[in-house]
Amino acid sequence: MAARNDGILLAGRLLLAAALLPAAIGRALNPSGFALTLAATGMPYPNAVATASVVIGLFGPLLLGLGLVPRLVGLGLAVHAVVMGLLLHRFWDFSGAVARIEQELFLAQLGLAAGFVLYAVTGPGGWSWQGWWHGGERAPAPAPVAAARAPRKRAAAPRGPRAAKAAA
């Protein structure tokens, strides 16, 4: 069962990484064009934001695929996906078919962010760099719960000076 879960977690990590790579490669090949796109939205410091987005977009999927620092990578990529969705898919500025398309793209970005948060919570699994580094250690299985519990003892009579006054 554990090997199947590790395989599913590996497949999920690779699918999330593959979803990011096309946009990241396009931004890396034309960072100035991406900076101009950001500048058109009114973003302050578009070159710095574009450079940060390219770095996150290229190294994030690499770290994701290898399963390194899952909480940091998962939460960082989730924030990146939400911010890029808010900056690039502003469906509230449009109307008609363009608004619907931009809204679908924005919701796709939110779906990616949800996947990254789930990755941050579940971890990379055993088939990852982290799993290899830790030797595939897993938490021990919980002890089985006894079917029949021992009967409870009755409470002892209260002791002390107040108990003596109450009895008198």
TrEMBL record:
Record's signal peptide: none
Primary site of residence: membrane
Its membrane topology: Multi-pass membrane protein
One annotated Gene Ontology cellular component of this protein: membrane
Biased composition (Low complexity): 157-168
Annotated organism of origin: Methylobacterium variabile
Pfam name, any one: DoxX
Residues annotated as transmembrane: 49-66, 73-92, 104-121
Stretches for region Disordered: 143-168
Protein name: DoxX family protein
Keyword terms: Membrane, Transmembrane, Transmembrane helix
InterPro entries: DoxX (IPR032808)
Domain of life (superkingdom): Bacteria
Compartments in which it is found: Membrane
